[in-house]
Amino acid sequence: MSWTEFKREEIHLGGQWLGADGGKTLEVLDPATGERIGTVPEAGAVETRRAIEAAHAALGEWSRRPAAERAALLRNLAAAILANQEALVELLTREQGKPLAEARGEVGMSAAYIQWFAEEARRLYGDVIPSPWRDRRILVTKEPIGVVGAITPWNFPSSMLARKIGPALAAGCTVVAKPASQTPYSGLAWAALAEIAGIPSGVLNVVTGSAREIGGELTSNPLVRKITFTGSTSVGKTLLAQGAGTVKKMSMELGGNAPFIVFDDADLDRAVQGAMAAKFRNAGQTCVCTNRFYAQDGIHDAFVERLSEATRALRVGAGLDAGTVIGPMIDDKAVAKAEALVADATAKGGRVVVGGGRHERGFSFFQPTVIADASNDMELAREEIFGPVAPVFRFRTEEEAVERANDTEFGLACYFYTNDLGRAFRVSERLQYGIVGVNEGLVTTEVAPFGGVKESGFGSEGSKYGLDDYVSVKYTCIGGLGL
Ligand code: NAP
Q1: Fewer CB in 10 Å around end: N or C, the chain?
Q2: Which one, of 343, 373, 372, lies nearest residue 357 by Cα?
Q3: Residue whose CA is closest, atom 23 of ligand 1?
Q4: Is the pTM of this model over 0.90?
C-alpha cells in the first residue's frame, strides 16, 4: 500500500471506519510547511464510549484464545508493518517532520516491539507455590487485566503505540487507543495494519479528537481497567487523578530532564558521538534527549569545542529531503519555547557558541544550538527543553556531578562517560533514573525495560517486564483434595 492509502481519515470502532458523530474534524498539518495534509474526526466522549464497548465485547473471545494464536496474529502484524514499511515511513515523516532515516528506524522499532511481544505472549507463566496445607494446592496465574486505554504523544507516533498494543494484545487485553492530534495518521494506521493482519474486530480501536473528552471517558468508564499513557508529566497527573475514581491500573511514561555527564577520563570522541545522538535525535524532541550536559573541568573546553563543531555540521531541512539530519520542530509553539529558553539563558550569562535562534528556513525550524557557561538558575536547567538546544554546565568533582544530575523531579534517562570501571558502577548506582547509558547515548531496544522513576512515571515498556502491566495476578487455592 502507499502512504496515502494508510492516511485514514476515519476513526476505527469495532471493526468499522467512521466519522465523528457530529461530522466535526481536526486538521493535520505538515510541520515542515504548515500545509494541510488532511483531516481526522474530532470525536469525543460518545464515540469513545462506543469504542470501549466494542473493546469490551471483543475481550472474552480474544482473552480465551490460546496464547499461540494471539502470538501468530501479532507476528502477522509485525509482518504487515515490515511489508508496508516505506509507506508508513513517509506517512510518519509527513505528519511528524522527522528525517526519513529516523522514521525508518521508528517503524522498524514498532515491528520489533510487536515481534517481541508475539514471542512473550507464549511465556506468560504462573506458579505452583508449595502449600502450607496438606490437602490444598496453591496456583498463581496471570490474567489479562481487561480493556486498556492507551494515550500517546506526537514525538514517536508509531512506536509509542507499538509498546502498548504489543503487550496488551499479547496478554489477551483489548485496546482503545488515542493518538496525539498532531500525528493521528500513524495511530490510525495501526487499525489498518490490524485488519491486514487478521486481528478480530474490536480488539484494537483507534479514536481521534478531543483529548479532554476522550481522556475523560477512558479514565472514568468502569469497563476500562487500565490506562497506559506516554506524554507530559502534567497530563499524566491529570489522568492519575481522573482514574482514581474507578481504581484503574496505570502506567505512566512521562517527561524527562536527562543529564549527560562527561568525566575527565572519558573517551572524548565517543562522548561527542553519543552526545549528538542523545541530544539531536528527532530535533531534540524525545523524552530521553539530553537536557543538561555536565563536562568536568579537565575536558570542559575540548568537549564544548568538539560538540559545537559536530553541531555546526548538522544539516537542517524537511524530513522528506535527502540528507536531512535535523527536521522541523513540531510547531511554532515548540520553536517559541526554544527561543525563550535561549533568551533566558543568555540573559543569565550563557554563551551561544552555535545557532541560538530560528533557522533561515523559517516556520518550525530552529537552529541546532550549543550554549556554554550554563548555570543552575537558567530555566533550561530545570525545564524539559524538548528542542535542539544543548546547554553545557561545568563541574569539578564526581560527587558534585551526581548531586546536580539528581537535582530534578524527573528520573527517566541519564548518560555518563568514563573509562574508570569502579566509577562506572559507583555513579550508575547513585543516579536516580530508570535508564542509564554508560558510554552509550542511544540505549532503547525492545528487549530492555524502558521507564522512569520519580515524576517521570512508573511501569516498564518492552522486555520481559513489559507484560506485567497488562495482567493481574490471581491466586487460586484448591482445597478438599483429601491428600
Ligand atoms: P502531552 O501534551 O501530554 O500529550 C500526550 C497525549 O496526551 C496526546 O495524545 C494528547 O492529546 C493527550 N492529552 C492531552 N491532554 C489530555 C487530557 N487532558 N486528557 C487526556 N489526554 C490528553 O505531551 P506531548 O507534548 O504530546 O509529548 C511530549 C511529552 O511526552 C514530553 O514531556 C515527553 O518527555 C513525553 N514523552 C515521554 C516518553 C516516555 O516514554 N517517558 C516518551 C515520549 C514522550 P492531543 O494531542 O489531542 O492534545
Answers
A1: C
A2: 343
A3: 231
A4: yes
